[in-house]
Amino acid sequence: MAGAGTAGALEARACNVYLRYDSTAELLWRIASDLNGLHGVSVRAQELARTSEDRPLITVTMESMQRAERSLEDPLEVLMIGGMHAREWISSASVLCLMVRHFERLAEILATSPVRLAFLANLNPDGYAYTRTTQRSWRRTRTPLPRGGKFAGIDLNRNFGVANETWGFGNPEAFFSELYQGEYPFEALEARALRDLVLAGNPARRIVLDVHCCAKVVFPVYNASEVRVAEATQLAHASQGVLRYRERSDVIDAKNTGIAVDWMERYAGVRAAFMLEVPGKAQPVNFHDLFRVPASAIAGTTDMIELILEEAVKLYAQDLSGANSVESEQPRLPEVDNSDDGIEIDNDDGDANVLQAVDMRETKSESFVIADAGPLSGVRESGFLPTLAEDVPTPDESAAFEDAIIFDAFTKVEDNQDMESVHLLAAIFVLGIATLALCVEVIRRCRERWHAWRMEEARRKL
């Protein structure tokens, strides 16, 4: 823990509340100024770019001062990214909190391992600001769309890649969709800023951990090698049972086009890239409520991703020593129970992996399904992550939702919603026809009675 002193004061600010983005930016600059030099760590903040709404994208880099001053060969860099999707507040807050809550531990890592740590706490500040003022469930950026009319924003995790290889399999006209991929790769300024950051220096010495919410899994790139699968499994194990490894599809299609980590590893040439899906809110009442993780969970989530960061350093720092390269030798994994714990992979369509919750119970107040406690129960008892959410809804939720990074958990929802819309329109059409038929029948009977009345009046006059 950061403990008392400067880092402790910053921790009190960063780890107990979801800050406005202007406060986050201010805190990032303070982290660089106040922590620089402590425990022999060089801490630097850098503005990468300005968003379309003039908010700064800020990275914080930590490195051993001794190594930085001696200008040694590029060390291994672990880049941790948060806030790619606007509504996933917990991802941004936990990355921010990590820098100060575990600063002393990070200093120990930097002193003993040939590594540099880089943090991009919030990649989507415009979208994040929008969730605080206008629409809490907003997911995309606020990028103006030249052909989008009233619509704005691009799903950042659909805007990376190479056209017709790892990008471009979505609908380019779907300006309304939460999964809108943009009209071309890296259309979003935020995506271009991250692209340039990833390509800077020596990408082959860079590890990327992209933090999201809320599927409780570690995803490697699509069509991952056995070595990469083993590494993802070991990172998941480091979470003490909170996260599980989950397989990605071996092909690119409309459901997983433009994913950032796929481009980073396949084309940018980074050493490895993973998506970390931290847990969402416990017992959400609907899908969007899943992202409303209470601020009390920030510290616990931070503790978990710090353990994963440490494990990443252990896995890959050995590359620089030339011993036991993980490319040539699969890492030795601890004995891990990789049973599904209530989640299984449905791979029937051959294109996408869809997590479907089993062993569920249905709440009495809502037609909503919540998973049993599973692996977090023991962790809670030990005092670790006391407030983290464990429960994830099934794809049966009827609310309008699509989530790019939980695509393996919820990718069938859009199709289900389309069918529901078709059924609703059909029902409305049938109801309209029935109403019209009823009106015609009423008019016919009224005319018959009117004619009968006129004939009766005529007979009376005779």
Please provide a written account of the structure.
The chain has 462 residues and is an alpha/beta fold. The chain folds into 2 domains: 406 residues, Zn peptidases (Aminopeptidase, 3-Layer(aba) Sandwich), CATH 3.40.630; 50 residues. It is 38% helix and 15% strand. The chain has 14 helices and 12 strands. The chain has an 8-stranded mixed beta sheet, with helices on both faces. It has a two-stranded antiparallel ribbon with strand order 9-10. Strands 11-12 form a two-stranded antiparallel ribbon. Helix 8 packs across helix 10. The longest helix has 49 residues. About 21% of the residues have low confidence.
Task: List key phrases describing it.
single chain; 462 residues; alpha/beta; Aminopeptidase
Please give the count of helices.
14
CATH architecture of the largest domain: 3-Layer(aba) Sandwich
Q: Helicity range of the residues?
A: 25-40%
- Beta fraction: 5-15%
Please mark out the parts with pLDDT under 50 across 5 or more consecutive residues, or reply none: 322-418
The CATH superfamily of the largest domain is Zn peptidases
Order of helices and strands: HHEEHEHHEHHEEHEHEHHEEEEHHH
Output the structural class.
Answer: alpha/beta
Distance between the first and last residues' Cα: 107 Å
The average pLDDT score comes to: 80
Short précis:
Belongs to the peptidase M14 family. 38% of the residues lie in helices and 15% in strands.
